[in-house]
Design a protein that fits this description.
heterodimer, A: 104 residues, Helix Hairpins, 3 helices, 74% helix, B: 160 residues, 6 helices, 0% strand
């Protein structure tokens, strides 16, 4: 028996939830970025799985979207980590609980 | 596509992802994150999208994971105090997973096997990128340039 689309979607949902857990429960900005990247990877897995299990189209749309999504995730990680470094320079911390200057 | 390979990759990926979300030390979490991404790339290989799997390994492990390690080293004075998962986040994550799993099991049309497809060659991807996807490609190029300049501006030394 070969894996169906269903099990791929379940694994992808589990990966997404794990990324969500990391992004929600951590207080360190880099951990939160790791969680977000994991959620993006889970979304990519969904795109590739749907492409593989659907009737073929020319061009391969799911693969294309996954490639663009990886490129955008790389840009997001670069800017996010630059923000972490900039915040660390100002506040000497990367704990998001301490960044409450705008709090009313 | 074999079942044993799928189960093995799924177990490694989910265990590494869980470790990345719960480990206390930043460096360990980053390495687990890299292992989880290797697992996702292995899924891509299993699904027949070898090129995307390679791109994922190059971009995420070659660039993003290394960038994260550099950031950890640059903000080093602050590491090592993060508490693990708290209950609210865990509850919400379990609820989201439950909802997604319920939706997947409820939908009958996704319980299908893989059809036979033509192999996805790099030639086909390149042709698609240069014909129907040429505008998105240019936009992504612009976005990456803007992100590069933006990241440089953000971390530049400020004039006093």
């Amino acid at each position: 028996m070969t894996p169906t689309l269903q099990v791929f979607l379940i694994v992808s949902a589990a990966l997404f939830s794990t990324g969500l857990l990391g992004a929600l429960s951590r207080r360190h900005a880099i951990f939160i970025l790791i969680g977000i990247e994991m959620m993006l990877a889970a979304a990519n897995l969904n795109f590739i799985a749907f492409w593989r299990f659907s009737p073929q189209s020319q061009p391969p749309t799911g693969v294309m979207i996954a490639i663009f999504s990886i490129a955008i995730a790389a840009a997001e990680a670069a800017v996010g980590l630059a923000l972490v470094i900039a915040v660390y320079r100002h506040y000497r911390t990367t704990n998001v609980d301490h960044l409450d200057q705008l709090k009313g | 596509m074999s079942s044993a390979a799928f189960v093995l990759i799924a177990m490694v990926t989910l265990a590494a992802a869980l470790a990345a979300a719960t480990l206390q030390k930043l460096m360990h979490a980053t390495l687990s994150f890299a292992v989880a991404l290797v697992g996702v790339a292995a899924f891509f290989f299993l699904l027949g999208a070898e090129f995307v799997g390679l791109v994922l390994v190059f971009v995420y492990i070659g660039a993003v994971a290394v960038l994260i390690v550099f950031t950890i080293l640059l903000t080093r004075r602050d590491v090592g105090k993060d508490r693990g998962a708290n209950w609210g986040g865990a509850l919400l994550a379990v609820a989201v997973f439950g909802g997604l799993a319920w939706a997947v099991f409820k939908t009958q049309s996704v319980a299908i096997g893989a059809p036979h497809i033509r192999a996805l060659t790099v030639k086909r991807i390149g042709e698609a990128l240069m014909t129907s996807y040429v505008w998105p490609l240019q936009c992504v190029g612009l976005l990456l340039t803007a992100a590069l300049i933006g990241a440089l501006v953000l971390v530049m030394e400020e004039k006093r």
